């Protein structure tokens, strides 16, 4: 079964200009995703899906393929990750290249490592899973969340008002780093977040959304700690 890593890196970031190729601790942040995919040894092709020439040049410099550019339809603000993945797979199909499994890797995910990708692809291919995704537990139990009503705070779920945190079920959220999936499952389910999903649990130290300048600085601090 042939496999492909698809790194989704369009141009035109609004909140952090040039986000996908901005320098992160000495090299473009995109490079970390490419290097992890290559280091994993799991993929017949490591490619970057982009609409931007500068991104394509940097991707190629770090060893990724850019065999074609995104269409205008999947380059806009409202295109979903699924839209991009299906377009990539369909274009490969037209070229006579068919992949049975794939991994979508975000371009601003420096905490992704070759070992994590290797583990995710192993879990995917050795099971009946449609998708494997990294998840992280909420740092505070959402069951004890407070909401504001009429200027006052109340428990959103008052049945947990006297519950101890350690007695509550751990809830997880998507780490926002990558998705290993079977391509046929994506086509049938219409989403990488539907079907039989297996978790790859990671620690808070290895997860950071990067949506603003503060996030960027925190991510660099966490990365130094992870690697230190």
Keywords:
228 residues; alpha/beta; 7-stranded mixed β-sheet; two-stranded antiparallel ribbon; 11 strands; 21% strand
Short summary:
The protein has 228 residues and is of the alpha/beta class. It has helices at residues 29-40, 53-61, 81-94, 114-125, 183-189, 213-227, and strands spanning 3-8, 23-24, 27-28, 45-49, 101-105, 131-137, 146-149, 152-155, 172-174, 178-182, 197-201. The strands form three sheets. Strands 1, 4, 5, 6, 9, 10 and 11 form a seven-stranded mixed β-sheet that branches.
The helix fraction, in percent, is 25-40%
Our estimate of the beta-strand percent is 15-25%
The end-to-end distance, rounded to whole angstroms, is 37 Å
Secondary structure category = alpha/beta
Subunit arrangement of the protein:
single chain
Largest sheet: 7 strands, mixed
- Global mean pLDDT: 96
Order of helices and strands: EEEHEHHEHEEEEEHEH
Give start-end ranges of low-pLDDT stretches: none
What is the tally of helical segments?
6
Global shape: globular
Description:
30% of the residues lie in helices and 21% in strands. Helix 1 packs across helix 4. It has helices at 29-40, 53-61, 81-94, 114-125, 183-189, 213-227; strands at residues 3-8, 23-24, 27-28, 45-49, 101-105, 131-137, 146-149, 152-155, 172-174, 178-182, 197-201. By secondary structure, it is of the alpha/beta class. The protein is globular. The two termini are 37 Å apart. It is built from six helices and eleven strands. Strand 2 and strand 3 (27-28) form a beta hairpin. The model has no long low-confidence stretch (mean pLDDT 96).
